[in-house]
Design a protein that fits this description.
Number of domains: 1
Shape: globular
Distance between the termini: 29 Å
Helix content: 25-40%
Number of strands: 5
Order of helices and strands: EHEEEHE
Mean pLDDT: 91
Structural class: alpha+beta
Oligomer: single chain
CATH architecture: 2-Layer Sandwich
CATH topology: Alpha-Beta Plaits
Strand order of the largest sheet: 4-1-5
Amino acid sequence: MNAVITYDIAATYGTKDTDVKNKMRAQGYMESFVTPSDNKTYYLPNTTLWKPNMTPAQAKADLLSAASACNAIVERLLALEFNNNWEAIQGKPYRS
């Protein structure tokens, strides 16, 4: 099973979004995916990530742990199974 997670970090002492996102990426979470059928890359919204072979419950636990390590507070989150039934706009790559 693949999981997708979207979240908001509370604005406290500046933004911690980047720190949390980097910590999640270090754990294998990704901000884009490529469709095997047509080799197109889809870029997820800013605070949305996905990871293969992951349950939504584990994605939630990973995010809460990453936020805690960054001294950030998760204000909202939604973790779902990422399956084959979806619609999207490709978007453009994020600037580094």
